[in-house]
Amino acid sequence: MQLRKLKPLAAAAAAASLAVAALTAVATAGHAATVSPAALSSNWYAAAPYLMPLDNNPPDAGAVMDATGLKAFQLAFILAPSGGGCSPTWGGTAPVSSDTAVASTIAAIRAKGGDVSASVGGYGGTKLGQTCGTPEATAAAYQQVISKYSLKAMDFDLEEPEYENTAAIHNEIGAAKILQANNPGIYISVTTAGTAAGTGWFGTQMLNEAKSQGFTPNNYSIMPFDGGFSGASSQTSALTNFNTILQSTFGWSAATAYAHEGFSGMNGRSDSGEYFYQADFQTVLDYATSHGMARFTFWSVNRDRQCTPADNNGTTSGTCSSVTQSAYDFSKYSVKFAGATPPTTTPTPTPTPTSACTVAEWTSTAIYTAGNEVAHNGHKWKAKWWTQGEEPGTTGVWGVWQDEGTC
Q1: From which residue to which does the signal peptide run (predicted)?
Q2: CA 115, CA 70: separation in Å to the nearest integer?
Q3: Would you call 25 helix, strand, or coil by DSSP?
Q4: Which residues pair with 155 in a beta bridge?
Q5: Cα–Cα distance between 155 and 65 in angstroms, integer?
Q6: Would you tell me which CATH number, out of the four given (3.40.50.300, 3.30.1360.170, 3.20.20.80, 3.30.300.20), belongs to the domain 30-338?
Q7: CA distance 127 to 141
Q8: Alpha helix locations (H) across 81-134?
Q9: What is the Cβ-side half-sphere exposure of residue 208, based on CA atoms within 13 angstroms?
Q10: Which of 166, 245, 293, 367 has its CA 20 to 30 A from that of 286?
Q11: pTM for this entry
């Protein structure tokens, strides 16, 4: 994509305007609804990788932008309150209504010319589609998020166990359709599990629910990892098969199906021990661009940095990739998909504050309750709720333990 060049006087005026806007954005971080940024072009929302702003030792978003040229992030995840109810929270614990921390992150990103999308759902926690009862109530909860942060994009990450609940999926798809109608121009993606066949029974059921409601998002994306995948060839095969599913479900041509199809990968070592390297990302990126696909994203920016040691002793982490890399290598593939060229030199990332592990080592037999702190694999962790035997930083339990940084 080419941007129009401003004439010198217009450029100076624009720069001054951006400076004022940046100061205003930072000053009003706690009231993000008052900030109304111009939407980025849709290719940036299509390329936005996932970032957990409150968990998994989040990197400085501005440093990522400087190092990679990235302009958009997919903030994760909006959930129902852990105690139940139909009001949106970050991660089940931080109410959107009183949030200032995520709002501050969003303001800083927008001050640098970027923007964000919010992702709802994900693997863990209770989803609003499960608790709100109707599509209308679910949409009203998500509208609070859109209004609070002046969002121009939203992702519906529909996977286990929610997508096995037909009522919940009916509510989520119905809510997405309502939001699409009530927020003209909003960019909506729907993300679901990937299999070698493209997607499984529940993913296909979700597509059929969307068809029955007459809802068409900007794209349907699959996550071809954690399902016996091995490198890029298995992922591109799944994407080809998913394209066939989209064709048969909606009556689309192959080209139309690709124009509504997306890829959501996992960088480095996956939850189930699969490995996806930089070369795999390049192969899938080439496939996506050559087939005119609508989205290329990955989980996650929090993991887009090298562990110590690099292989993380053969384990998966929520805060690093478990493969050899330079900081934010994988984010640069998102930048390429958006049509931009990453910087040739990488600025030194802002160092993440560390904390001393002055707490006891985690054990699998101990019972922990909300607020308990432990040390594990060189990090300090805090329990969000009751847990036993769920190892910090491993498969499926990132929502249980909050990573408080390295020791």
Answers
A1: 1-32
A2: 10
A3: helix
A4: 119, 189
A5: 21
A6: 3.20.20.80
A7: 11
A8: 101-111, 128-131
A9: 9
A10: 245
A11: 0.79
CA distance 397 to 279: 28
333 SS3 class: helix
Q: In the numeric block, which tokens belong to residue 58?
A: 């989040």
Length of the chain: 407
Distance CA 72, CA 352 (A): 21
**367-406 belongs to which CATH class?**
mainly beta
Looking at residues 260-279, what average pLDDT do you find? 97
Nearest to 92 by CA among 403, 402, 405: 402
pLDDT at 182 over 70: yes
Q: Measured between alpha carbons, how far is 80 from 95 in angstroms, rounded to an integer?
A: 9
Rounded to 5 degrees, what angle do the CA atoms 348, 15, 344 make?
A: 30
Q: Write the CB contacts of 215 (distance below 8 Å, at least 6 apart in sequence).
A: 173, 174, 176, 177, 180
| pLDDT computed for residue 407 by the predictor | 66
Residue spans of the domains in the chain: they are 30-338, 367-406
159, 172, 261, 274: the active-site residue: 159
Query: 375 pairs with which residues across the strands?
Result: 361, 380
Token readout for 5 is 């060049």
Tokens of 400: 């249980």
Mean pLDDT of the chain: 88
**Range of lowest pLDDT (4-8, 236-240, 246-250, 390-394):** 4-8
**pLDDT digits over 47-76, tens only?**
999 999 999 999 999 999 999 999 999 999
CA separation for the pair 301, 331 (Å, rounded): 7
pLDDT tens per residue, range 137-161: 999 999 999 999 999 999 999 998 8
The answer to whether 87 and 97 have CB atoms below 8 angstroms apart is yes
Residue 101 tokens read as 């921390």
Cβ neighbours, 10 Å, residue 407: 15
In the chain, what are the helix, strand and coil shares in percent, each to the nearest 5? 40, 20, 45
Angle at 50 between CA 46 and CA 53, to 5 degrees: 135
Report which secondary-structure segment, H or E, holds 21.
Answer: helix 8-27
Phi, psi of 95 (to 5 degrees): -60, 135
CA dist 347 → 52, 289, 351 (Å): 22, 28, 12
